[in-house]
Structure formats: C-alpha cells, structure tokens
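Hey all, quick one. A colleague (J.T.) asked me to put the iron/sulfur cluster job into the tracker so the inputs and the structure tokens live in one place instead of scattered across chat threads. No bug as far as I know, just bookkeeping. Sequence used:
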Amino acid sequence: MFLFNIQRFSTHDGPGIRTTVFFKGCPLRCRWCHNPESQRFGPEVLHNSERCVLCGKCVSNCPVQAITVGNGTLFTDAKRCTGCGLCADECINCARDVAGREYTVSQVMDTVLRDKTFYAESGGGVTFSGGECMSAPKELLSLLRECRQWGIHTAVDTCGYCEPDDLIATMPYTSVYLYDIKCVDPVLHKKLTGADNGVILQNLRLLKEGGANIWLRLPLIGGANCGGGETDALLKLADEIRPDHVSLLPYHNTGNFKYKKLNRDAGSFTAPTAEWLEELKGRFEKAGHSVKIGN
Ligand code: SF4
Ligand code: SF4
C-alpha cells in the first residue's frame, strides 16, 4: 500500500493515544486541505526553495531527467518523476523530500504494535486516515483485520467517497468512523471538492443503518462553506443521523508552507470567528448533540 506517513502518539484523530496511518491519494481536491501532499496518488516531491542553493546536483542525478532549472528555482515534472528519492538523498542542503512510499501490512503492523500498551492505558488505538484510506479498500481491510486480532481499537477517517460495498466490508472491524462532511449542498460540494456528494451522504446513511459508531467531522472554512444555508443543512443532517459525536473543525493555514514546496496555490481561506463557532456549537448542543470545537 502507498502511505505518506505513520504518526505515533497522535491525540487528534479519535479517542486516546493513537497511531495514525496516512494513505496517499484522495478522490477529492479540497482547496483548503492542510496535507496537500496527501491528495495525489503516487509519489510527490516537495522542494524547499529557501534551502536550495541551485547547485544542480539533483538535476544531474535524476535518472529520468524530471528536474529542470528555470527562473531561479527548480521545476519537477510530476509525470516523469518515479519517486525514487535519489534527488533527496543527493541534496546536502535537505531541500527535497519525497512524499509517499510502499509499505506492506506487516511493516505497518510492526510500527502499530510498538505502542499497544499506550492504546490500552489511554483508550486509544489506530486511525486509518489520508488522503483517503477507503481508496485502498483491500489493504485497509487487511490492516483492520490484523488490528482486530490484536484487540486494538480502530478508527476509519474517511470522506465517504467510496464504493458502498467496500465501506460495508470494514464495519465488523471498525470501532469508530470519523466521517468528514465538507458541505451538504451538492452543487457547492462539487465546486469545492471536484466531486459529487451523493455517494458520501448515501454511505453515511448506510453506516447509520448498520449501527456504526459515527463521529461527524465538519471542516468550517471561511470563504468556502460557512455561508448561505450550509450550517442549517449541516444541523439538519446531524439531526437525521444522530452521530455519537460532532467535531467542528475551523480552518487553519498550517499547511500553507507545503503548498509552496509543491509549487501550488494555497487559496485564500479564513477561519470563522470564535463568536460564530460558539454560536454554532450552541445550536448543536441545543439539538442534543455531543459537540466540540476542534478534534
Ligand atoms: S541538490 Fe539540493 S541544493 Fe542542489 S539544486 Fe538540488 S535541491 Fe537545490
Ligand atoms: S524522486 Fe527520483 S525521479 Fe523524482 S525528481 Fe527525484 S530523482 Fe528524479
């Protein structure tokens, strides 16, 4: 399977102390994503122009001639790049990184099992995230089964854009779904993410019908999904689904430096105000939901 990170001692991706396994590749293209290197399937080079002295060593060592120099910086042709990592190995200034590499199930489990004691003591476990972990359904299922055999709590962090049968297959082995809803309006959803949300809402209802433990995660992005009738629609959806928990996730720009390294535009979004968030939280509470601002 292709991952871009395995993060130990995470406290923001479900209950307790967790190991978060980040799959690379996502079917959505949310412009505010704070892990932009997670979106494309396959390897990706991040180039730090502030560290680069344009010595050209990486250019001459790239086996497929994917790197060119122009306008005082380097350009990497993503179509040619194989993700071999040679350029990063060669750079003595640590100006290059390759996001994404292949792992086997046993390699992932070796890391996961190191912190088994912490999971037990903190009520934590493993979270499969991304990118989109449901975009690699067979590999995800193997990992979920392994975790179940070891008695480890599992969370699937998903945007829900996947085959319904693949999602259903995960249910016997998943302790909680961290289910992201970007917005309810289908036209706005398509505009913001590039994808239709019909299957996302259908899959959420499937999980509900199957009795899954659902934590609804609502990214709130000023300049994208905080206006119009969206908040009313989110409340209506939450009232229908009655999730076990709701997380209101205000926009933050901590991933902007990665857009620069990927030579991509970070967009211009804002965080909703604290007053607006508190008011929204109050509306969820009034409707009887367990709700928190943040993860
Ligand atoms: S080897 Fe490093 S410092 Fe030299 S051009 Fe490549 S990225 Fe820049
Ligand atoms: S990762 Fe490999 S193929 Fe890609 S730019 Fe670097 S050296 Fe070239």
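Adding what we noticed when we looked at it: The chain has two domains: 2-39+101-293, 44-99. The chain has a mean pLDDT of 94.
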